[in-house]
Amino acid sequence: MRLAVDFNSYFASVEQQLNPVLRGRPIAVVPSMADTTCCIAASYEAKKFGVKTGTLVREAKQLCPGIKLIVGDHTKYVEYHHRLWHAIDSVLPIWWTPSIDEMHCELNKRDQTPERAKVYALRIKQVINDQVGEFLKCSIGIAPNAYLAKTASDMQKPDGLVVIEKHDLPHILHRLDLRDLCGIGSSMERRLRANGIDTVEQLCAASREELRRAWGSVEGELMWARLRGEEVYTAPTEQRSLGHSHVLPPAERNDRDAHAVIHRMLQKAAMRLRKMKLVTGAMHIRISYAHHDNWSRDGTFSETQDTMMLGHFMDSLWAHRPRGKSVPQPFAVGVTLMNLRPEQQQTLPLFAEEKPRTAINSTIDKLNLRYGKNTVYFGRAHTARDSAPMRIAFTRIPDLDTER
Questions:
Q1: CATH 1.10.1040.10 fits 77-227, yes or no
Q2: For helices 186-194 and 208-215, what crossing angle results, to 10°?
């Protein structure tokens, strides 16, 4: 049996835990105070009005005129994640943390019965309440494998507790919609419907071969096994890219500030690269324009983790951006470093012109880690020192040391 913990409306709940004035009120966490951005989280009080993750701020105000908007502070969310991790790990060992608001725990052989598993689930809820905060509720799912435990944790919210046993399968899943299952998004739903699978009941009844055909890969067979309670091992994937993107606030939607912001993000990415002991050999940059086509450019270079070299290469790409009076103002910018591999496997340059900067990069990293971000930085990011704050991706928990 596996036990999955899913924190309910996590970002919004952290805000309500920190600020009693927000408790019991409809709130939405947003990246910036602009009607053109989207809500990145909504409290359950706001969800009752139809506000959810991805709702435009403009629409959220129409759906819920009394909604309170909060600019997200992702540093707080990561800090609370670590507090929650330690609280839960004091009850059961955590073996997998797939996202900022989800943790999976290991149950040993003697605790595999639903009764004993429920006892641990209730202890987890209590320790969160006592050690972290009473407004940080969670839903817990217990099931034969991690996939179904996650599914169970989504079946009763907020503050739910659902147990799926082998003999409950597959009928307990039949009341779900296809999109309620992890791994089935809009495009996969269309593919399933094209293969005559319109409901979860039909999905569960399909053969292994039918699901492989619907998915077009072995992933269909893995889904067939997961739905039957089998634990499916998936090999860890190597990180092939890393980067940052940022929606510019209205005051920074101009060429000069966009250039500074993208350099600020590049310098953070380079520091992450060095901490992970990786080098990169390719870069992709992009500019998004509100209600217009996006522009992007990429290129390759000799493998490196040197901030100055990466900055020069970025400027060579940036020089090709659209310009002129007819070009709209930038709405968002992003940079991605690609073709990553361990620094031990780096192909060394024929000439050693960048070797002296290894010590410089190391010194800059140490100073920023010790005294805080922006203690030392490259001048291209000067006007964006406090821009592009840390953001939390769905499947990656930021490192507070390198991404504040």
A1: no
A2: 120
